[in-house]
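This section describes the prediction task in plain terms. A model, or a person checking by hand, is given the sequence of a single protein chain and must write out its three-dimensional structure as a string of tokens. No templates, partner chains or ligands are provided. The sample shown here is typical of the held-out split.
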Amino acid sequence: MTITDVTTAEVRGEPRWRAAVRDAIPAIGIYIFLRLISLEVMSVLARYSYAQDPTKQVYPDGSTNQWRGYTSSLDALVSWDARWYTMIAGQGIGGPLGAVDASGVPYEHRLMFFPLYPWLARPLAQLPFVSPVAACMVISLISAIAAAWGLYLIGRHVHDHRVGIMLAAAWAVAPAAMTQNGAFSESLFTALAAWALWAVLTERWVLAGALAGLSGLSRPTAAALIGVVGLAALIAAIRRRGGWRPYAAMLLAPAGLLGYVGYASHRLGGVDRYFDIHENTFGAWWDYGTSTSKVVWDVMLGNSEDAGKPIRVLNVLILFGFLILLAMLFANRVPWVLSVYALATLVLAAGSHAHISMMGRHLLPAFTVLLVPAVALARTSTRNMVMLLGSLAVLSGWYAGWLPFISGQAI
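The expected answer:
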């Protein structure tokens, strides 16, 4: 909340927290409404797809070593990495080093999934009549609402109230937006990132460092946020702003990421073993963008049989669109922490070896580039804005939901 907002609330005799909630309600409401439309469209597509081929097997479930199909939209929302998260939420990390679970999958593979999201869901999953899937869905819903609120605050801080609302709306229809509502860590990490960046913009250094530290427990790409928060705190310390607080932020920001990697490496017998499993089991390692650039060229030139697959074309377009929005973000001279965070997220997403179908999901937390369309939406008439967002909500049920999940490739 800015100084102006606080002063106005105090003049009205309204508590700060109540004013903050009241101001954010339109952004949260629009976000939820747009997501509900997308989810309904995805549900229709799921029912139609199942009617066409009820026995279709779509993806290999690494948590059980079985192939799975989609009988409903819920199956899609609990697919791929979500299978691991729901399993960890229900069973925990599991047995000792070298042991395997009932499906013959080594327990050590669970250590590759950062724990904050399943940790938050696990207490709910222990309640009577609450399944691990339901517990994860509750955490995703709460996290998505918190993320929409954080996006609104950033949009309002940088521009105004209307831009804040439109930023939350744009994130609701972004590519791969369905992972916001599935058993994935995207919503949780985005919420932590949004509030951490807002804390940096408003010079709440301890809060920024603590949130960045927590984000390091949610996913490895939190390194982008950790770096930005740490750099901003360092600059504040050099300029002697904030007293001891920027130093605290610098210490807190990397604590979660370093702590978990250290813990997992210790459990596995060494950091080499940790990265070896990432590379040889999950196909994830730093390759300086070699795999990404190869797919981009294949799609552009049509050099392979898979080049024309819709999921590949879509994600190459997502990458190009992101680059354009990022350039415009820098050109519009927003606070540097927002543009550098988006750039760092892009570098981590494009520089790692991963299937191209994961590009939209990996870039989803880089919401700051959506300030560009948010400003454009805020300047349009209400009628045109409603028509555009409504159309995108319907379309996103396909391009941001069903297509990524049903592609049969990594998500």
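For orientation: Residues 3-406 form one domain.
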